[in-house]
Amino acid sequence: MKRIEYSEHLKIRMKLRNIPLNLAKDIYLKADVKFFDTATQHKIALKSLEYMGKVRDIIICYDESENRVKIITIHPLKTYQKVQRIKSGRWKRL
């Protein structure tokens, strides 16, 4: 199994958004779908979860090597953001 690391940025974002620490790892391991973001050159894992009283798509951005995953950030998406990024070709399904 790959070693999962959290960036300092991710830790700050999780604290500011009151997101449980293990959620980023769970999204990586149990993603509904994964993409490659052509604008940032990072991989994206997306999972629909309950967040702030609503079911929302939550994404993590991460980089991956043979033995390590570094999760960079996490945030909930608005529906139009997901649709637009796929439609524009910015996100390519993995």
Give me the secondary-structure topology:
Layout (H helix, E strand, L loop, with lengths): L2 E4 L1 H9 L6 H8 L2 E5 L4 E10 L2 E11 L3 E10 L1 H9 L3 E3 L1
Q: What is the helix fraction of residues, given as a range? A: 25-40%
| Count of individual beta strands | 6
Q: From the helix content, strand content and strand pairing, which structural class follows?
A: alpha+beta
Which stretches are low in confidence, meaning pLDDT under 50 for 5 or more residues running? none
Largest sheet: 6 strands, mixed
Average predicted local confidence, pLDDT: 94
Shape: globular
How many whole angstroms does the radius of gyration measure? 13 Å
Measured between the Cα atoms of the first and last residue, the distance is 19 Å
The total of helices stands at 3
Spatial order of strands in the largest sheet: 1-5-4-3-2-6
Strand content: over 45%
Domain count: 1
Order of helices and strands: EHHEEEEHE
